[in-house]
Each structure stands twice: as structure tokens, then as C-alpha cells.
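Human: Here is a favour to ask of a fellow structure person. Comparing notes only helps if you start from a blank page. Give me a protein, with the fold worked out from its sequence. Please set it down just below, with no commentary around it:

Assistant:
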Amino acid sequence: MSNKEVRIGVFPGSFNPFTIGHFSVVERSVGLFDKLYVAVGYNADKEINVSIEERLEAIRKSLSRFENVEVVAYSGLTVDFCRQLKSKYIVRGIRSVADFEYERNMADINRQISGIETILFFSLPEHGAVSSSIVRELERYGADVSHFLPSDKK
């Protein structure tokens, strides 16, 4: 039996909706971990137009080809959820300088209170402008947003 530590990562977010940018972060980070949890969080501060159950189902469908990815729901502090899963790593994606500043501060606080490290993935150039809030706004006005969402046929 090996004493090799199991590498567990947690990619948290509200994922409302789960975009091609989120998919890209999963695709690029999945090989770093034995298990990667895509953790759909309850966030009272975010506008939610799709139930958590619907988001979980859609994300599971789009990520079904990744054998070591599990899509789960959680509430509370992300670091507490990471501790429950015995994860030492939080995975985050960043698109802009503003995202970087926010994520750097969160990573520093999370590390200070828990010892959990954050791994940042810069968005691919073609995904830099794609955000869940922009996709929701486009949907609200009836625009076709399908090219901003992962294809289930990949």
C-alpha cells in the first residue's frame, strides 16, 4: 500500500450559469488532482435565477467525461467545506485585474485561517469577457448565449 497523499481540489462558485470559462478552468486543472470537486455554493449575495438542483444537473452533464470530477452543493465557508473533504487546495479562475485583486485577498485570508492554498488559473484570451452575470443579462433580453456555455457533446 502506498503512502501517497491523495490530492483533492475544490473549485467553488455559484456557477449561475456554468460558462465556457468555468469549463476551461476544470479542463485545465483536473489533471493536477486525484479528485476535483466542483462545489456549487449557496450565496445569499448573488442573484440566482436557476435552482441549485438545476445547476448541479447541468454542470454534471457538461463535466461527465471527467472521471475524477464530482459536482456537489455546499453552504458556509469554503475552507470549512475543504476541510470536510480533506482538500488542501482551492481552484479559482481569474479574468481581469479586478478578479486578481479579489482572489489574491481571498487566498491570503483563506491560507491564514486554514492553511489551504489557492491555485489561480488565468482565463484563456477568448474567455476573458465571459462572466455569468453578462450571460444572465444577455439571456434576460433573449440573446442566444449558447456559445458562452459548455457544449454537452464535447
